[in-house]
Here is the input.
Amino acid sequence: MQIGYVHLTVRFAPALHPHHASLEFSAATSRMSRLFEHSVSIRAAFAGLTAASGGVCCLLDTERHTFRMCWLHGEAIDETVPGPRFADFRDLVATWPDPGREIRPTRAPHAVGRAAQDR
Here is the structure.
């Protein structure tokens, strides 16, 4: 399905985590942005692109004061930032790995992680 224009902003060595690059995909219209947020298949497509590129995290703009996270550290996820797990972007980015270091655990397990542990 054609959806229209999607804007891309690339930031190398962003201030919050200079060992990563940030790729920000933005919907061209508010209607498209809401579609991205509410569509399970579109969120899965962005999560898949993040996974395929070796990305750490995928966030979708909600055009409010939160972002919807659909990928984090190799797992599909459905949370908001800020939200119960991450008070702000600094808390989220603090969990990202540094080159040559393991991923640090976050403060609270999330539903996807708990479900995987129960298997």
Remarks:
- Confidence is low (pLDDT under 50) at residues 100-119.
- The chain has four helices and five strands.
- The longest strand covers residues 6-12.
- Strands lie at 6-12, 21-27, 57-61, 67-72, 75-81.
